[in-house]
Amino acid sequence: MRRAWNLAASAFFAIPLAGGWVGSGTSTSGRALLVVLGVATLARPAWGLLLMCGLIPMIDPAVVASGSPLLAEQIVLAFIVAANIRLAFARDLGPGHLVRPGIVLGVVVLASSSLAVSSTQQLVTATPDVFLRALWTHLSTDYYGSRQWFGMVNDMMAWFEAIALALVAERLVRTSGAPVESLMRLLVVAGGALALFSGIHLLEIALGSLHPWQTALHTLIRTRFNSFYPDINAAASVYALFLAPGSWLAWRERGRLAAAATLALTLALWLAGSRAAFAAVVGTTGLAWARVTRPPKALVVGVALMAVVAVYLVSATSVRNASVIRATVVRVELARVALQLTAEEPLFGSGLRSFRQRSIAAITPEMHARFRTFFWRGENAHNNFLQILVELGVAGLLAFVLMLTPLLKSVWRRATPASSTASVAIGLGITAFLFTCLLGHPLLLDDIRWQFFFVLGVGTGLVAAPARAGGAGRALFVAAVACVIAATPMRMQAARRHTDLSGVVFGTSGPLEAGDGTIYRRFGTDATWYLDASTRAVVLRMRSEEENIDPCTVRVAIEGQVLSTPAITRDVWLPVAVPVSPVAPGRSLRLDMHVVTPECRIMVAPLTELP
Description:
By secondary structure, the chain is an alpha+beta fold. Helix content is 64%, strand content 9%. The chain has helices at residues 2-23, 28-43, 45-55, 59-66, 71-88, 99-124, 128-140, 151-176, 180-207, 212-222, 232-253, 256-272, 275-293, 297-317, 324-344, 355-362, 365-370, 372-375, 384-414, 421-437, 446-463, 471-497, and strands spanning 505-506, 512-513, 519-523, 526-531, 537-544, 552-558, 561-564, 567-568, 574-579, 589-595, 602-604, 608-610. The model has no long low-confidence stretch (mean pLDDT 85).
């Protein structure tokens, strides 16, 4: 059974990988990298893990260097496919800690995306089988193409890939025999290499001016930037993910590479200017120091006070950030909005990337007026846990937290004077990153989500003891998956009812112009219009395009009920008034027309909807 699951997962992720290989324009160097990664993972799991530990922090620079914009996802897919094949033939080491919560989280993501796919189907075509063929074409050959109608599929796949990274990384660590210290050091050094790009950019700014030293100082004090990520606070979360373990390794092992990486990461974090990330690194390393070295209580209190003062001074005196009061007010309002939106869809959420749009109506008018430029298009939660709660519900958030629990519990228990330096270090990185998630939403970015989940999987495999196969846990897992699956059809039906399809037309040509100047659409067999729910009557103007001896008969139905069967000629635009029965608020009305007479083509002028 385990082998079948691994091979099925490998085949599933191979579909978009193959489509990207054929149609995305991947460079020769990019394809060579994918081949090396896949072959190394198949040959020796330890080699694949070491390669990924070096690649994951540097995934965005690799994309830029290769000239392949989509190489990041292809790297992730290549590793997942090869890792699943390798795990299919590895000896069974018992259940993994991340498998059950990871599967539950994946099922919730799938259910959430199914709602969006179902609603989108109504906007693309009225015929489900045509839509399914288009969906398969997108997934298998045009996955990296247009996201106009199938963006939710790419969002879903990015989440699947992140979860799969965590699952296979945990299992590979247990089967590969890769040295623990080497994996952790490589992650830190690669993170330092990523941070170097911020230092290089600072150097370019300084050397490009007439007064390099003054310019560099001015940039350090007043400017925020990073080299690769569109969300600068999310970039700081990445730097915190590698800076916290890097500083621990540099202190405990006196390693030169770790010390150099720590310096580069500290500079990059400062240039990113995130107060939350700065506090996260200071707080987590300070807590680990107190837990591992067990210093006198007076010293702990003194160091804690100094850390609090340092964080406060940096936060209060920063001229690069919004004021602490303003930032707090915004986050309190967004937390209130998150709880309000959660109450509407508490169990399984409202779907990926739905928070921003839904928040527009939930933000109070006072806040809209006070922060006009900030809230006018809505906002994300600025708290990744609340973001997940709204979009994936209590089930999704609980599954996510359960994925974190084994590593965090194991690190806390092992944080003793005799503990492994690497085990504490990787726990520090995960903890620091999660702290930034309380005040930001770095997991909204696909590449950062891949980085975090990979490190989580590696850390769980390194630190957590082998999982136990418990009957109660298995029953709870099966029940959770069954509940999500059982609720999906009902949620899908409700989502379809409330999708606004007003103005959508299927089965006709585009707008054309008749000889008399009338704009019309043409159809030959069946056509569908969607009307606003407030419509109480609709007036159609139709005529035949061909000169037929007999009039063309058209059957007109609204919501499946045939209301009129007019006879249409070519000579004149025939007006047809059709009454409409009230429907539930928010629902779009479906108007269908079917040409009864063979070989007739009908011209339909713009419909007039009467409230």
